[in-house]
Write a structure and sequence with these properties.
The structure is a homodimer of 655-residue chains.
Chain A lengths: L7 E4 L3 E7 L8 E9 L6 E4 L1 E4 L2 E7 L4 E11 L1 H14 L5 H15 L6 H14 L5 H9 L1 H8 L8 E2 L4 E6 L6 E5 L15 H4 L3 H6 L4 E4 L47 H13 L3 E6 L2 E2 L4 H5 L15 E3 L2 E3 L3 E2 L7 H17 L4 E5 L6 H14 L4 E5 L4 H10 L3 E2 L9 H13 L9 E3 L8 H21 L2 E5 L37 H13 L9 E4 L6 E6 L8 E6 L6 E6 L12 E6 L5 E5 L2 E6 L6 E7 L13 E2 H5 L2
Parallel strand pairs in A: 1-9, 10-11, 10-21, 11-12, 12-17, 17-18, 18-19, 20-21, 27-30
Antiparallel strand pairs in A: 2-6, 3-4, 3-7, 5-6, 7-8, 7-9, 13-16, 14-15, 22-23, 23-24, 24-29, 25-28, 26-27, 26-29
Helix pairs in contact in A: 1-2, 2-3, 10-11, 14-15
Chain lengths: 655, 655
């Protein structure tokens, strides 16, 4: 990444496939190795590289522990192999090779100095004596020289004294699998009760855990849980005139009850929080906290660290704004102050505080408005002690800034997914994310909605629109998420043309009836179960889009990097109308002939179909279903076998 | 190139266009500059960059002297511009901006410390006092603050104290124009007489100079002119049984008369050589010498520096071979000997010897069989003293090795051009050479033939084949060359299936009758004149291929990097048959409408045609001509004007 300036990213258990152009002058036989080690280790591990084609060499190395790895490449002239090749050509040409045999004896004698004592060295030494003896009969000498076992033994003891090493040591950041594969659910714990006039407590919120867990989520992400400021507190719908009981925005962090390491009293205490985390863990849910480095005017930092805030000539602190937008309840921190080092240490300490309470996933609010250098330092420092920490960047900004934050160390990034709704947009964006170098360092977490983003597609498309976006998020991305209310198809905007929710939970407590008819909870549960069962859906790199003859029908398949799982998804992107058409299966890519028959199982409906040939008919009526998530079974032995027991897809769908 | 490991290449007078992703955290206004300097200079020159799109910034810098340049990029937050933008937004929103005006006063006061004394500083100081005075009426303050002239003056005195500089200093190797644009003619001076039984002298060879000059060549390249060894001398057609008078191969360098710094006695003396160089210069021809670092068994090095040769166990020196090929008359040098430093110095001295005698262009024989590091060091060392030296790499080897030699410092490279004869091959190869990063460091010199390569296309295609390859070489490449005999369409191979010439001049003296009927000399002269008249043909980057409906018709255009010259070439690749069809003009790319009319002038026949619309008919009969080299005149004012005075192309060609 940027010529070694930043690490690539992997998770434990992955293989890093390294390729390099390796060549020497002349016609000698060369060899090459990937060198790798855990950062901090003294010695390198060597993996022999294989020549692929046209001077390109390649080898994989495993990364099985968390943290940083280093790697580079080394190449050298293999004197023995060069001599052996030359000898074999001369033997083939019927030449007298007695001088060559003597030469070989000398090369082996030199190589023997690199052999440890033992039977191997002994055997090679015998060959050496045979070749170095002028009395050796030529045929016997040639046979000994060209012996395949000798070649293998010699290759295992290469002379690297004149090896050339690549000029840089490159890095890999190895995280745990959850950095790549997880389903997230976002919830305001204060809304978990039944009374909109008061905050629910953590204990009340804990009653939601079985529900969230039943939908198969892995991560439960909470907006800030810290004391909320009172000064310039926002009222419902971002108004400046709150009523006395209005709870304010959780992102207006800090009051006399404390700041980033305190708990909002309405939610409870630190002990209540700990109990909530433990309960979540018991339901298989890992808690992700929101880290928003900003302060309400009442935050203790304002009193205790006046230097951390930018003051205007009249002595007042500037509140956050992006004209014409104003955030009167929030002061930004001044990362350029003379006291910046204390500020950086303090903020790193905020992460560490919550890590010490068992939180290992952080969703970082607006990291693009803080210095890149701060993130690079903080994230590396934290990972040094806690390599299992995961950081999600909430930077909805320009593509290169988003990528730079990923390079600087964020495990994952929010994406443009919410704004990519047409087939063309989706294909273009996910090709960029999964088929370009971007994939080496940036992992998208596909949130289908957030408290800030209710896309007009959802506003106007009704329940089927939510189903479409759910299927896309959960199958295009190994990491995806929804913000609560999504499963209830909540779609009322603040006003036409706005992506803000009406009566947004950011400013109000919003209890919900999660048991209401029409909830997508069951569908979500099924899809999350499919994700857990199918390695193809646990990785982003195996995505391939396929042609259809209808622009509203999007078709793609996913495969894991290893193993033979294969998932095919066909989605009707039009939430309002039945769409039908033909979908092209990449049978050749799948190792089949264009006339092959494949059996597919719809993992949502459990229906089985058989698809014949490349182009197959699909019909998706949103009233019935918006998508097929199909498990494709390719049985190499049964490519043209009978399939009478399954009904043809077209017939099944044409009912 | 390779992330700064190697320089890019330019010639004097070029501009280097630098682009970079530049961004900061947050929403501040930023600025960026390209920093450049001659290598060795202390101070940087700054060129302000312009934002192009999507965080991409760009600026050019000029390179007008030979040698190495360095460059990098710097970016910073522009505090004044950020404040000014913020102020203008607030003014637009009708806000009270009096605190902002005070803030601006402080920013300007800080900036003034960077201003030299003078009227400019005085005027800015007045603005500063206006803004810093709380009594200033708001409207007046805003007007002073947003004044465009103030913005320009402030931008000219940026605060770079917190600038971020790109982590690498990149390099440019600047050569003279001839490294990019020249027509080469290769000639064995010993064949310049009339008697095949003895070597012509330099004085006799000088009689060829007017002829070579009349064809418009720029460079006259001579195979090695050094004493030729007698041991294992090769006879005609590479035989091992030379007759007493056989001259041997000029690449078997060295005899008792001397080595790489001596002149073959048959050609004359060093003084004769000097006179030949001077005469060539008088005819506008620059001499290029062949540097082949290898020795005949009779070379003085063999006696004087036994360590520079690799010995076999029996004490004999290994001759060069690439089994089954044997070069008994040549010993390779051993670059891995313990005495390698003396060898490197000696070989560098060979270049310097000839440079001191006025030679500044070297065609280097088989550089890929010598260490890359040797070339990188030698070429850089020589250029340090003689930055006008040009090196052509004769490495017909794998693509990445050829590219690596270019990276290591060769000005030019022989190419695969001779083996690219079909339309598909040509389009693919020249797209790689001119449209990928390769063009930044590798310049192809398109030899249409060499003493080693007589392609079967030439063997079987007769005179038209030579015309086709001439047009392609001279118009696809800013640098191209032919080896003498090409203009006479010499096409007899050693045997069917071989690319070697029959009775190759490498082993025999081959006087020719250059005045014979059918010579292409006049056509060559016309084409070289066209090359000199048209900047479009003097650069490789402006090449674009265009569609035709006939696979034997190749169409492309060339434009210079600056200026509005435009050449269109249409070639019939089939030397045996008339081919006709339609050629698509890229009218949109040329800034015209698809219905436009363009006037074209055939620069070989001086015929004028008018082409209407995108698709135009072309008919090329090899008996008449193999190609059009057309000057396209685009008159912006006459796009749809009448063109009755020129005949339509189709009519002209359909005669």
């Amino acid at each position: 990444v940027d010529a070694g300036r930043f690490p690539i990213k992997r998770v434990t258990g992955d293989a890093v496939v390294v390729s390099a152009d390796v060549h020497a002058d002349g016609h000698d036989v060369i060899a090459a190795s990937v060198l790798y080690r855990r950062a901090g280790d003294e010695t390198w591990n060597h993996v022999p590289m294989q020549a692929i084609e046209n001077d390109r060499w390649q080898a994989p190395f495993p990364v099985d522990t968390l943290g940083r790895y280093e790697y580079t490449v080394e190449g050298w002239v293999d004197r023995f192999a060069s001599w052996r090749l030359d000898l074999s050509k001369k033997v083939e040409a019927g030449r007298d090779v007695s001088p060559e045999l003597l030469e070989g004896g000398a090369i082996i004698a030199d190589a023997l100095t690199r052999f440890p004592e033992g039977p191997e060295a002994h055997r090679v030494h015998q060959v050496q004596r045979t070749l170095s003896d002028p009395a050796t009969e030529a045929g016997r000498g040639v046979a000994a020289a060209l012996d395949a076992e000798l070649a293998a033994v010699m290759a295992a003891h290469p002379d690297r004294s004149r090896a050339t090493r690549f000029g840089r040591v490159l890095e890999v950041l190895v995280e745990r699998e959850r950095a790549r594969f997880a389903a997230w659910y976002e919830m305001f714990p204060r809304s978990a009760g039944h009374d909109p006039s008061r905050s629910a407590t953590f204990d009340e919120a804990a009653r939601m855990l079985p529900y969230v867990s039943s939908m198969g989520f892995d991560v439960l992400y909470l907006p800030p849980v810290h004391p909320i400021g009172r000064s310039f507190r926002k009222g419902p719908n971002n108004s400046l005139t709150p009523a006395p009981g209005d709870p304010g925005s959780p992102w207006a962090i800090g009051s006399e009850e404390g700041g980033h390491t305190a708990i909002e009293p309405g939610l409870g205490t630190l002990e209540d929080f700990d109990r909530f985390v433990a309960a979540a863990t018991g339901h298989g849910l890992e808690i992700a906290l929101d880290i928003a480095f900003q302060a309400s005017p009442d935050h203790p930092y304002v009193r205790e660290h006046p230097a951390w805030f930018r003051r205007r000539p009249d002595g007042t602190i500037k509140y956050a704004e992006n004209p014409p937008k104003k955030y009167q309840d929030i002061y930004p921190l001044n990362f350029e102050s003379d006291d910046w080092q204390a500020l950086w240490r303090e903020l790193k300490g905020v992460f560490e505080f919550w890590i010490d309470r068992g939180v290992k996933i952080f969703r970082v609010d607006n990291p693009h408005t803080k210095p890149f250098g701060f993130w690079e330092w903080t994230l590396a420092e934290i990972r040094r002690q806690h390599p299992d920490t995961i950081f999600l960047s909430e930077a909805f900004t320009r593509p290169k800034v988003m990528r730079y934050l990923a390079k600087a160390g964020f495990s994952q990034s929010y994406s443009y997914f919410t704004w990519r709704n047409s087939k063309e947009e989706i294909v273009e964006y996910f090709t960029e994310l999964t088929r370009t170098k971007v994939r080496e360092y940036m992992r998208a977490n596909l949130f289908a909605n957030t408290p800030d983003i209710l896309h007009e597609y959802l506003q106007h498309g009704g329940r089927p629109a939510f189903q479409v976006r759910l299927v896309l998020a959960a199958t295009l991305g190994a990491s995806y998420g929804i913000y609560s209310g999504f499963e209830l198809a909540e779609n009322a905007p603040l006003r036409e043309g706005s992506e803000e929710y009406l009566d947004s939970e950011k400013y109000q407590i919003r209890p919900r009836d999660y048991q209401q008819a029409g909830s997508l909870a069951e569908m979500i549960g099924r899809i999350n179960a499919v994700r857990r069962d199918h390695p193809a859906l646990q990785h982003d790199w195996g995505l391939a889009f396929h042609r259809t003859d209808n622009p509203e029908l999007l078709a793609y398949s996913k495969r894991p990097l290893h193993g033979d799982d294969l998932i095919m998804v066909v989605v009707n992107l039009d939430p309002s109308n039945m769409q039908h058409g033909f979908v092209q299966l990449p049978l050749i890519d799948w190792g089949l002939t264009p006339n092959s028959t494949v059996e597919v199982l719809d993992l949502l409906s459990r229906e089985r179909y058989v698809w014949r040939g490349e182009w197959n008919y699909v019909r998706l009526d949103p009233q019935d279903r918006v998508a097929h998530i199909l498990h494709v079974r390719i049985d190499p032995d049964a490519r043209s076998a009978g399939t009478e027991d399954v009904k043809p897809m077209a017939a099944a769908l044409g009912r």
